[in-house]
Design brief:
322 residues; alpha/beta; 12 helices
Length: 322
Amino acid sequence: MTKKRTSLLVLVAALAVFASIAPAQSYPTKPIRMVVAQAAGGPTDVVTRIFSSKLSELLGQQIVVDNRPGAGGSVAGEVVAHAPADGYTLCVMANGTAAVAPHFIKLNYSVEKDFAPVALIGNSPLALMVSTAMPTHSVKELISLAKERPGTINFGSSGQGSTGQLAGELFKIMAAVELTHVPYKGAAPALVALVTGEIQMLVSAFSSSLTYIKQGRVRALAVTGTKRQRVFPDLPTVAETLPGYEATSWYALLTRAGTPRAIIERLNREATRALTDPDMRWKLVGAGVDVEILTPEALGAKIRADYERWGKVVKATGMKAQ
């Protein structure tokens, strides 16, 4: 190979490296849209607004939260899947949207192919709650009542394909009880339905339920994780009554597949800075979220593993695609 040709190849390689770095150096130069697959006031929305406020500060640009609830998160998913791959359309998804809904909702996109993992915000166990009109004050009493009155207890969720629905379905299987599922367009309307007695049971994230629980508007019976929560240390786990029961949620930042790697890395770095900020961690813990820092690759692996795990539950429940 001639010296001239070698120099040309080195120049081409250098230009390629510069082209990959340049977008991150100037990014972002305008406001960023952050799509949320749940209604305002829902757990994903609460976590997103806490997180985005700090991320916006670190990026030096406004982040506009755009709530697009409905159809198990597919409404929001389509918005992001068809957005330009330039880092200006992000989304925060819970595992119900990214790893559960694809099993039984016909989507016009693929989470694995059309989305690029950016950063994990954190993990969150759910709260099993009942209406204050219910005469039950423990998981054991709830199971007994459900066996006495099969099919008469309605359990709500933030939508078809949500983690809350799967958590309820898993509860039905393990407790051997008959409950009727009622889906809503987000956790906020489901919580209102629980307060008014339209539904009698709800499994939802602490991030949106804390205020209702503390005000006594709903009655929390248990937490769905493997250990008790720091915010409610006296609240037992469902597993203390139903050994082996576990249903947790997580929240992740994603963007359009094909977004320049340099931009994804910049977003991951700033997300890590935001999540390691003591004040941010305190706010998220207060919302029932345990922060976990992951690389984009590790987040992708987590999404795939959860997809496979919940797929087994979906199959066991006999759920069918819409």
